[in-house]
Amino acid sequence: MAEGFARAHGSDVLTAQSAGLAPAIAVAPLTQKVMREKNIDLGGLCPKSLNMVEGEVDLVINMSGYPAPLGIDARVEEWTVHDPIGESEEIFRQVRDEIEQRVLRLISSMRTRKPPQSADLAPRSADGVKP
Q: How far apart are CA 85 and CA 89, in angstroms?
């Protein structure tokens, strides 16, 4: 769900990849259904293992309920989110809406970060003074 929301709402500030401690071969049908209600198609997405993540990672959102594995070379943010597997459709919707709000807050915080100013990027002399 988080990857779907991140791709739909934040592709201008992030590249989302879903990975986890328990990879799956498919997304649960009820997850797909409640996400389609938000006009997000998860077709082709599935949680892969952590070693299948491509490229450099700046931030890991851990929603597993377990400590993040050692050796992750990125900031880890823990989100306590109920796992809806085996629950009712209404619980899936509640979890979906909670994840959506968390992802939207993350995207908003990324958009409001002040980018480096060109003056900050100017070369400095050996004494640290900008020419």
A: 10
Dihedral in degrees, nearest 10, Cα atoms 12, 14, 15, 18: -130
Average pLDDT of span 3-27: 88
Q: How confident is the model over 30-86, as pLDDT tens digits?
A: 999 999 999 999 988 887 887 788 888 889 899 988 888 777 888 889 999 999 999
Q: Can you tell me the distance from the alpha carbon of 124 to that of 106, in angstroms, rounded to the nearest whole number?
A: 34
Backbone angles phi, psi at 4, to 5 degrees: -60, -45
How far CA 61 is from CA of 2, 53, 81, 86, in Å, comes to 9, 13, 11, 23
Q: Which two tokens stand for residue 82?
A: 């109920």
CATH C-level class of 2-110: alpha beta
